[in-house]
Amino acid sequence: MNNPQTSVLISDAQIQDRVRELGRMVTKDFPDGELIVVGILKGAFMFVADLTRAIERPLKLDFMGISSYGRGKTSSGEVKVTKDLDMQIEGANVLIVEDIVDTGVTLSYLVGVLNQRKPRAIRIAALLDKPDRRLRPVHVAYCGFQIPDEFVVGYGLDFDEDYRGLKDICILKEGA
Ligand code: IMP
Ligand code: MG
Questions:
Q1: CB proximity list for 105: less than 8 A, separation 6 or greater
Q2: Does residue 18 lie within any of the structural domains?
C-alpha cells in the first residue's frame, strides 16, 4: 500500500528474516523447562504471532496489557497494568515480547512486577530498540533492529490506534 504519510524503514521481508533468526536463538537458548511467552498488548501482537511460530519448542502464551503512552507521540511517563496475566509464572522461564523499547520505563517497571512472582528467569525480546532515548537501563536479550529516534508505525505499532495493520515498519512523517 502506498501511503503518503509514511515511508518504509524496515520492509516486511527484512522483518520476517530477522524474526526467524530470533526464533532460532530462543529455541537454542531454552533447551528445557517451561517457557511462557508474555506478549505485551497491543503493539507486540504481530511480532508475537510470528516469533512464536519461529520458536521450535513447546511454549505457553499469555498476554499483558500495559499503557504508558496514552495518545500522541510522547510518553506520559506513567505505567499502568491494564490487563494482568492469566497464568502463574513461578518457576518458569519467561520471555517478554515487546514491540519497541524507547525510554525503557515500561519494561523496567514490568520486569520489576514480574520478578516479584518468582519466575526462574526473565528475558526480553523487543522487535525495535531506540537506544538514544533510554532513561532506564533495560537488557534486551533478543533485539530485532536498533532504529534512530523517529516515530514508527506498522507491524503492530500505532499512532493513536492507526497504522497497526501495515506489513512494513514505517516512519510517520511530520505533520501526519
Ligand atoms: P517506553 O516506556 O518509553 O520504553 O515506551 C515503550 C512503549 O511506547 C512501546 O511499547 C510503544 O507502545 C510506545 N512507543 C515508543 N516508541 C514508539 C514509536 O516509535 N511508535 C509507536 N509506539 C512507540
Ligand atoms: Mg507497547
A1: 68, 75, 77, 79, 135, 136
A2: yes
Cα–Cα distances in angstroms (integers) from residue 93 to residues 67, 102, 120, in the given order: 24, 24, 5
Looking from the CA of 175 toward its CB, the CA atoms found within 13 Å total: 2
Range of the domain at 125: 6-172
State if residue 106 touches ligand 1 by the CB under 6 angstroms criterion: yes
CATH of the domain at 37: 3.40.50.2020
Pocket residue to mutate for ligand 1, from 66, 78, 99, most atoms within 8 A of Cβ: 99
> Would you call 102 a catalytic residue per the annotation?
yes
Query: Which pTM was predicted?
Result: 0.94
Angle between helices 45-54 and 12-29 (to 10 degrees): 50
Alpha-carbon distance of 14 to 90, in angstroms, equals 36
Looking at the structure of the chain, the number of domains it has is 1
Instruction: Determine, yes or no, domain membership for 1.
Output: no
> Atom 19 (ligand 1): residue with closest C-alpha?
151
**pLDDT per position as a tens digit, 61-120:** 999 999 875 556 666 667 889 999 999 999 999 999 999 999 999 999 999 999 999 999
| In contact, 21 and 145? CB cutoff 8 Å | no
User: Among 62, 84, 99, 102, which one carries the catalytic annotation?
Assistant: 102
